[in-house]
Design a protein that fits this description.
By secondary structure, the protein is mainly α. It has one domain: Glycerol uptake facilitator protein (Up-down Bundle). It contains eleven helices and no strands. It is globular. The two termini are 30 Å apart.
């Protein structure tokens, strides 16, 4: 399987299960309605785990432009392969977001609040403060990229099937500890791809897609991913 194809499949699974759990918790008349933040963060962690296990053997399962850019910065990914990763990640995000719309088709019309519908696709801050929101997303993505690199630098992890589970648990932990301020995008494709689909899809009763905020969950994770990779490269023995 090609890098592009693997990233499409892995990212689609990630978005389907991740945004799917948000829809389950937020949309009216869902059996999971009001299940809460722990359910959302755990669902996202399991979505990451499934995506990593599904395609890790083919592409390394970046599933995230911040990981791709961070890895390329320290030489873990060839720059020539970066467009393949990015293309696959965004196409996969488009597909996953569309599947969430289809899976919850009758629930969009049953939900009055357009903000809840948007939250099923992309992030928004709890307190809108540009500097604080950027800092939070940088920190969260730093932890993600640094943690992934550290896990797989340990031969006891790299040589087993634990890697995907550990990455999923890492995302769960980031969501629990750092997700409150911004909803922890920590992944430009995860936020921008579904935000675009929110604007395009015929979602019943939807509102605007909050484009004024959209640059933060793209730019800040890219910065955090590069900083996390550089910190790992500086402090871990080669």
């Amino acid at each position: 399987m090609s890098i592009f194809g693997a990233e499409v499949i892995g990212t689609a699974l990630l978005i389907l299960l991740g945004n799917g759990v948000v829809a389950g918790v937020l949309l009216n008349q869902s059996k999971a309605q009001n299940a809460g933040w722990i359910v959302i963060t755990f669902g996202w962690g399991m979505g990451v785990m499934v995506g990593v296990f599904a395609v890790g053997q083919f592409s390394g399962a970046h599933l995230n432009p911040a990981i791709t850019l961070g890895f390329a910065t320290i030489g873990n990914t060839e720059w020539a392969d970066v467009p393949k990763y990015l293309g696959g990640e965004f196409v996969g995000a488009f597909i996953g977001a569309t599947l969430v719309w289809a899976a919850y088709l009758p629930h969009w019309g049953a939900t009055e609040d357009p903000g809840l519908k948007l939250a099923c696709y992309c992030t928004a801050p709890a307190i809108r403060n540009t500097v604080a929101n950027v800092i939070c997303e940088i920190i969260g993505t730093f932890v993600l990229v640094f943690g992934v690199l550290a896990f797989f630098a340990d031969p006891n992890t790299a040589g087993t099937a634990l890697g995907g589970l550990l990455v999923g648990l890492l995302v769960f932990g980031i969501g629990m500890s750092l997700g409150g301020p911004t909803g922890y995008a920590i992944n430009p494709a995860r936020d921008l791809g579904p935000r675009i689909m929110h604007a395009i899809l015929p979602i019943a009763g939807k509102g605007p897609s909050d484009w004024s905020y959209a640059w933060i969950p793209v730019v800040a994770p890219l910065i955090g991913g590069v900083l996390g990779a550089l910190a790992f490269d500086a402090f871990y023995p080669g």
